[in-house]
Request: fold
Amino acid sequence: MLKSLGIDAEIIDAEADADAAVLEAVELAGRLEAERDEYLDLARRVQADFENYKRRVDQQNVELRARAAEQLARELLPVLDAGEAASAQGMQDAAAIYNQLLSTLEKQGLASVAESDVEFDPNIHEAVMHEEGESEGEAAVVTEILRTGYLWNDRVLRPAMVKVLG
Reply:
């Protein structure tokens, strides 16, 4: 019977060791799952940060290209003025080049401000001459364009120099 007790004690010890090993394995699995979840969360945050960074860089590149195009258009204004003057003097070759340049720039976002008989808008017009109107309450009207103004994608590159009535 003593021998039987020794075997039973060994079995009990083995079961206790097995239970402890199972408990340790469960705890380890829990820690590993928590660590895995932390790494997955970190990976998701890094991925989101990268996507935001990429979006921000793309937006900055778009803005940089837009500013560069606007600056180029601004630097071409004297060329447009010269072409417009040459065209007005009947120089056909210069007029053809001017019209082609103007057409190309208009496709990219350039718009001329050269209409007369429209209400004066201080955002796009610069009044350099003024005539008194017949009545004091009427709005100022552009009567003559002295220098063409230009917009680039709805932003003023240069206001039109105008003569106003009213």
